[in-house]
Amino acid sequence: MKLNFAKRMSSIKASEIREILKVTEQEDVISFAGGLPAPELFPIEEINEVNQIVLKEAGTKALQYTTTEGYAPLREWIAKRMNERLGTLLDKDNILITHGSQQGLDLSGKVFLDEGDVVLCESPTYLAAISAFKSYGCNFIEIPTDEHGMDMNILEDVLSHTGNIKLIYVIPTFQNPTGKTWNLERRRKLAELSAQYNVPVIEDNPYGELRFEGETLPSVKSFDAVGNILCTGSFSKIFCPGFRIGWIAGDKDIIRKYVLVKQGTDLQCNTIAQMVIAEYLKRYDIDKHIGKIVEVYRKRRDVAVKCIECYFPEGIKFTHPEGGLFTWIELPEGISARDILEKCLEKKIAFVPGGSFYPNENKENTFRINYSNMPEEKIKKGLQIIGEVIQEYIHEIK
Amino acid sequence: MKLNFAKRMSSIKASEIREILKVTEQEDVISFAGGLPAPELFPIEEINEVNQIVLKEAGTKALQYTTTEGYAPLREWIAKRMNERLGTLLDKDNILITHGSQQGLDLSGKVFLDEGDVVLCESPTYLAAISAFKSYGCNFIEIPTDEHGMDMNILEDVLSHTGNIKLIYVIPTFQNPTGKTWNLERRRKLAELSAQYNVPVIEDNPYGELRFEGETLPSVKSFDAVGNILCTGSFSKIFCPGFRIGWIAGDKDIIRKYVLVKQGTDLQCNTIAQMVIAEYLKRYDIDKHIGKIVEVYRKRRDVAVKCIECYFPEGIKFTHPEGGLFTWIELPEGISARDILEKCLEKKIAFVPGGSFYPNENKENTFRINYSNMPEEKIKKGLQIIGEVIQEYIHEIK
Questions:
Q1: Which residues of A touch B270 (CB under 8 A)?
Q2: Confidence (pLDDT) at A154
Q3: Domain boundary at A283, A299, A324, which?
Q4: Could you report the per-residue pLDDT of A36-80, keeping only the tens digit for each?
Q5: Which of A36, A65, A118 to mutate to test the interface with B (most CBs of B within 10 A)?
Q6: Could you tell me if B348 and B230 lie in one domain?
Q7: Which of B283, B310, B327 is the endpoint of a domain?
Q8: Is A23 on the interface with B (CB under 8 A)?
Q9: Which pTM value belongs to this model?
Q10: How far apart are CA B132 and CA B110, in angstroms?
Q11: A114 contacts chain B (CB < 8 A)
Q12: ipTM of the complex
């Protein structure tokens, strides 16, 4: 006899990325598929040192339960950092520590979404945000996006004509999957529309610290006049993802609701991981460390962009990202990135086809390239092969 | 303008325990309120050593993303441990690593529960399980429990007469809050009824390793003929809770659904915490370590039981737990444990009144005593004062 699962289970599928990642576990595969940071840049020595200090000075505290909200000194640092860099006005009580920024999305679904509610998002958008929100039974309306961000006219039109919109989900800085960054005007406008239509915004920001060029822009949250905007962040890309420490920042009354929801979900995040990060931030210069990461990723971005220009056939569009981990390829209409992937996997090259990043439509002629996790020569070799496969494919179908 | 939260938010309240715990943060408070393990027993030295080994030998892996399922050697150890102690037949693919056993409950809600579904549970039951399941919009039916476990006749009656029952939630070993342990017959019968009525069981087992006397009993899962039973476990009480590492074990097809749900929830648990535990288990004798914990807690249980017998007025019932962290007090009818708590807090003594452990009814004349987190002299002093307060209270209302 089959068990009765919740209705949501019929729409929850295996993440295509996680499935492709399994293929890429073989050592000789060149993978542009994940969103993995470069492990050779993890501050292993420093973490080892700080770990010992924390265990020696406060071992019983570091291994015991702590508050759901998270370790206070870490929340203080996060609030200060956001205020300095992103133009917000926050203190520690605006911050809840979460299991990566991913958990901020899941908790947002739990706090805001009933079955049949509508979430507005960029088209395309982060695929694990789609799964996080979908598990609360919502529907998506995709808002078109150009090189400056979400189209604010279309957004306003949808906001004014659609019932039960509960959330607007955006990644305005070095977007996943496109690598695009919203300009200042769109950020301000989104905050205005959020207030006007009383719809909260989840501003997902796991990559914002990784800027290769240009000026850091204020967050959408910094234009929040009414307290409707929540902003995530993460130590995964600037420190290490293995700790699973991120956060969500917002109005204190809303964050208190998130805290209640997190209590029933998993009580709290890893205590010692929070204390180790806080101690590291006290003893070391995180900006210097981020500087190192940015330098490496910038070079890899440069190589990736150059190789795409060089090896890919004409008529292909791609993003020149100012930061973050990804660029986004648009093939000519009618070419399926899944077909290209199949041929590439035979040659031991992997990437994620773009279809999964659209909650409703599938634009099959797109794919995402991650450049943060491999040395330059591998990026070059891999993109050269992908370019050849695309050339051949176009030649064949002509 | 007020934001529109999800309907579930109207029923999610602050955990009474977490609120009382805030009061108990003052150093001179004697608290029987939490479920905290004794921090002086955490293997700090060993964790420090093993941490260094893991970072030295596999630092980049330990700090990077890993699979949602969790670290394979740890899942292998868990399966083997359960097979040896609890009579199951599992391998690593039956195990998903979770953020404590608490997350196993939340994921169970997500996998099984739609709004309006029914969860059957012991009366009383673990209060954070109530919040975890309630956030998926379910209703509860409480099944009465005696000193041998849940009443199987009433359970069968409810199963045969009630629609949309989706889960049976139980804590058969050293139950939270009552400290009671189900006998073998009830365990076997529950598995039979679960198969007969095709309703999955969540067997929550975070305390099972902490047995002070008597024989370890096979788990309900060990009688699972059809693959309907899921069983949680945790390193929080036998290693340390700060790592937030637990698990859920079950049929492989069901666990795959849990994995999909966890992907969207928070991707995975802390990588290095999983590797450190696995390395510790390889290098050290966990049974010896658990033996130390059991010895300390047994003495504390003995002191607690003796003090209740000695200082509490006649007509009070309480559990003599064979293991775990809690005993459960039933005051004479008409006496409110919340009133007693109020008077005790004035004298800087804290505990959790029983009302919160009932999803529907509030039996106000009950409360829970945790004895694991304090030295014996404090247990003695605290229970003496609670006894005096109850005596006075009974005298006053007469």
A1: 242-244, 270, 273
A2: 98
A3: A283
A4: 999 999 999 999 999 999 999 999 999 999 999 999 999 999 999
A5: A65
A6: no
A7: B283
A8: no
A9: 0.96
A10: 9
A11: yes
A12: 0.96
